[in-house]
Amino acid sequence: MASTDLRDRRPLSPHLQVYRPNLTMMMSILHRITGAALYFALLLGIWWLVALASGPEYFTFVNGIFGSWFGLLILFGATYALFHHMMGGIRHLIWDTGRAFAIPAAEHMAWMSLALAAGLTVLVFVAGWLAA
Questions:
Q1: Where would a tag sit more exposed on the chain, N or C end, judged by fewer CB atoms within 10 A?
Q2: Domain boundaries, the chain
Q3: Residue 1 gets which letter from DSSP?
Q4: Would you put residue 22 in left (φ > 0), alpha (ψ -120 to 50) or beta?
Q5: The pTM is what?
Q6: What is the fold of 23-131?
Q7: Dihedral angle at the C-alpha atoms of 74, 61, 126, 114, nearest 10 degrees?
Q8: Residue 121 near residue 86 (C-beta atoms within 8 A)
Q9: C-alpha span between 103 and 99 (Å, rounded)
Q10: pLDDT tens-digit map of 57-86
Q11: Distances in whole angstroms, Cα of residue 14 to Cα of each of 18, 63, 79, 124
């Protein structure tokens, strides 16, 4: 009975409501969200490849969905998720070398990750539009 008394008196571990959100915290959360979103994007890519292998009629149908405004919005989000997740991985590789742990450096890398992910996403879509 003594062990349950001790367990009842222990403090609860702090959670998100205790901490004031900061940039690196939000980047960590967004990194996890984009990682999960990439699973959905992978399924879309598999669907497109299956349609390609299924014949011209079904491929035209699926390609029409991806070419609609809603499909392009989903593809834009998936492209941003890919680049954001990649930039987060590069940030972690830099941290693995023992560099940029100071708060100003970590925040600078977070802003650079956001800017590069957004810029690369726009660059891919502009290049795709110019190639079409």
A1: N
A2: 23-131
A3: -
A4: beta
A5: 0.83
A6: 3 helical TM bundles of succinate and fumarate reductases (1.20.1300)
A7: 20
A8: no
A9: 11
A10: 999 999 999 999 999 999 999 999 999 999
A11: 6, 47, 34, 41
